[in-house]
């Protein structure tokens, strides 16, 4: 047991009481208990996290899925592991997670796998020195909050400089993550093969220019957006040496992927190149934590989808697969994954512009909806706060707008899904739309566990 002062003790007890009430009376409230604790003791995260080996997962896309993968791998080893699986990834939510799992007496070694919002890393590392910090990637996201990718990187690095002892495990295919001027030990992971035959970044790709000399990058290959085996033939800056790598992409379908990571063949139950990146990151981190390769592979092959991340939900006789989409890079990857399908499709779209989604939805015009014209799409249902903006974007992309079903509430959307011509329906939803529609489905009995 670690000694704590009376203020921290009161803070923790208050958070636990608030958590109990939030869970049993209000069926939620993953941030508010942390706010209560911080109001009493602004430094309570330090005593709450004492005794944990901590892994922080940050970056634009893939945080929740990667966190879940790491957590499940460690849990499969019989280890005592906690995580903020509700996605509450800002300081109050992380405090609430530690408070919920706080024990005044314990003996076992404990791990915490924590997803962290990019702008909140500096608040967490003020109180915690993680064993490992990983940065998954950097894409334009929530433009009104982060601006361009360089701003996002600066926000993350404000937190990294607080903890020079932490090991950094980084996506080597992300050009912004090379040549970091920090004393930390750095390990890189990435791809040695790509399904993408282009060696030229798309017009709307993000970090296309050398971080050293600003000349345009060239690529041996691109995986997607600006990720890949990059190099600058003007100044010589290039991708760092990889320790963990995808050496072969054996198969990708709308529902699964088969890849070779280092020398291990892995069948992933989640599809898409972005989920291969997530699995590669989890593989790298847990290997560095001492987990055996066979155990890592076994766990990755038995992962279930995190809520809203290719999660499958049954609505009567329809099987809906929900894709969380929040920026051009992630949206294009979701569309590319759907495009692997050879069958007729039914699609549903939700577009919200709440704070957590980003108020600025101009990014929608950088998404390649035109690719859907190559598919056999039978139904298109559209909902969310900005459903008319979504409808206009899909109309401009060339889809048949006479077939659009505009649904201004969840009942109408659910009825539209039920009347779809196909058994499988792909739902693409921004963050708050995904969260709120899941809550609606929970009240209707279609989802048993909300979180």
Structure description:
- With 451 residues, the protein is of the alpha/beta class.
- It folds into two domains: 50-86 and 102-300, Mur-like, catalytic domain (UDP-N-acetylmuramoyl-L-alanine:D-glutamate ligase, 3-Layer(aba) Sandwich); 309-443, Mur ligase, C-terminal domain (Protein-Tyrosine Phosphatase, Chain A, Alpha-Beta Complex), CATH 3.90.190.20.
- Helix content is 32%, strand content 22%.
- The protein has 14 helices and 17 strands.
- It has helices spanning 6-25, 32-40, 45-49, 63-75, 91-100, 121-124, 143-146, 149-160, 273-288, 293-300, 328-338, 387-396, 410-418, 431-443, and strands at 52-58, 80-83, 110-115, 132-135, 167-171, 186-191, 218-224, 227-231, 244-252, 257-261, 264-268, 309-315, 318-324, 345-350, 377-383, 404-406, 424-429.
- It has a nine-stranded mixed beta sheet with strand order 2-3-1-4-5-6-9-10-11, with helices on both faces.
- Helix 1 packs antiparallel against helix 2 (32-40) and helix 9 (273-288) runs antiparallel to helix 10 (293-300).
- The longest helix is centred in the N-terminal third of the chain and has 20 residues, at 6-25.
- It is globular.
- The two termini are 30 Å apart.
- The model has no long low-confidence stretch (mean pLDDT 92).
């Amino acid at each position: 047991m670690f000694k704590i002062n009376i203020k921290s003790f009161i803070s923790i007890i208050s958070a636990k009481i608030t958590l109990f009430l939030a869970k049993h009376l209000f069926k939620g409230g993953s941030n508010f208990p942390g706010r209560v604790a911080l109001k009493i003791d602004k430094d309570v995260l330090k005593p709450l996290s004492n005794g944990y080996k901590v892994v922080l997962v940050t970056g634009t896309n893939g945080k929740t899925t990667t966190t879940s993968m790491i957590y499940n791998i460690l849990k499969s080893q019989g280890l005592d592991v906690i995580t903020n699986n509700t996605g509450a990834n800002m300081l109050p939510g992380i405090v609430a997670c530690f408070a919920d799992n706080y024990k005044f007496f314990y003996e076992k070694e404990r791990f915490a796998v924590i997803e962290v919002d990019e702008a909140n890393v500096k608040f967490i590392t003020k109180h915690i020195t993680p064993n490992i910090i990983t940065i998954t990637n950097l894409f334009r996201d929530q433009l009104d909050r982060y601006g361009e990718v360089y701003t996002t990187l600066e926000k993350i690095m404000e937190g990294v400089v607080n903890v020079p002892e932490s090991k950094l495990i980084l996506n080597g295919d992300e050009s912004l993550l090379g040549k970091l001027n920090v004393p930390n030990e750095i390990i890189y992971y990435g791809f040695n093969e790509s399904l993408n035959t282009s060696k030229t970044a798309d017009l709307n790709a993000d970090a296309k220019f050398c971080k050293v000399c600003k000349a345009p990058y060239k690529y041996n290959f691109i995986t997607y957006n600006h990720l890949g085996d990059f190099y600058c033939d003007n100044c010589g800056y290039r991708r760092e040496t990889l320790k963990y790598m995808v050496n072969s992409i054996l198969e990708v379908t709308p529902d699964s992927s088969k890849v070779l990571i280092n020398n291990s063949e892995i069948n992933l139950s989640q599809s898409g190149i972005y989920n291969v990146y997530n699995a590669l990151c989890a593989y790298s981190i847990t290997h560095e934590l001492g987990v055996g390769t066979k155990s890592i592979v076994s766990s990755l092959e038995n992962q279930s989808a995190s809520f809203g991340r290719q999660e499958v939900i049954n609505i009567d006789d329809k099987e809906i697969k929900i894709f969380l989409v929040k920026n051009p890079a992630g949206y294009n990857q979701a569309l590319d994954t759907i495009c692997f399908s050879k069958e007729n499709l039914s699609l549903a779209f939700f577009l919200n512009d709440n704070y957590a989604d980003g108020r600025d939805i101009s990014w929608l015009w950088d998404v390649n909806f035109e690719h859907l014209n190559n598919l056999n799409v039978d139904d298109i249902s559209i909902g969310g706060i900005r459903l008319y903006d979504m409808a206009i974007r899909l109309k401009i992309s060339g889809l048949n707008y006479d077939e659009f079903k505009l649904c201004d509430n969840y009942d109408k959307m659910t009825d539209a899904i039920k009347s779809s011509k196909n058994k499988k329906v792909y739902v693409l939803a921004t963050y708050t739309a995904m969260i709120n529609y899941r809550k609606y489905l929970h009240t209707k009995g279609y989802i048993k566990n909300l979180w």
